[in-house]
Amino acid sequence: MENAYIKLVTNSNAQHISLDDVKDLFSYYKEITGKTGTQLDWDYDNAAFPYQIKEVNHEKNWFYLKSDHQKYKAIIVGVGQEKIVDETGENTVQSYIQITLPEISTAGDKGKANEFCKFLAKKLEGELHLFNGRVMYFYKRK
Fold first, then answer.
1. What is the mean pLDDT of residues 34-54?
2. Would you say 140 and 127 are in contact if contact means Cβ atoms under 8 Å apart?
3. Are 64 and 51 a contacting pair, CB within 8 Å?
4. Rounded to whole angstroms, how far apart are CA atoms 105 and 111?
5. What predicted TM-score, i.e. pTM, was given to this entire model?
6. How does pLDDT run across 94-129, given as a tens digit for each residue?
7. Closest CA to 99 of 124, 119, 79
8. What residue ranges carry the coiled-coil annotation (predicted)?
9. Hey, what domains does the chain have and what are their CATH numbers?
10. Environment class of 55 (CB within 10 Å of its CB; exposed 0-12, middle 13-18, buried 19+)
């Protein structure tokens, strides 16, 4: 299993995130890619988001994206919080979105997961910790 995280830092435009918020962001992603497809006269929304949201587990704070497409299988999406020490030295709680590639995931899933991570981090102005360990900053830095 591989994991990527979108962490909501002090400069993010949200400090807390719920599963419903993440599902809303995926709906928005499907909507905008669908509009792009309409402009191009191409069924782009199915190519851009070849998944259905399945088995939302609110007690455990996760759901998964399942695909029937040949190139894609599944991506797990969860939300959580962790205790950290912030830049001022104070103990605080930081919210995050976790994107997990289970053993059955394909290279196509990893590519889509990277796209989704960047989209979510950009929309939330968060700190993206990619599958390869690199960090991308999407918030305004001082």
1. 74
2. no
3. no
4. 10
5. 0.88
6. 999 999 999 999 999 999 999 999 999 999 999 999
7. 79
8. none
9. 2-137 (3.30.310.120)
10. exposed
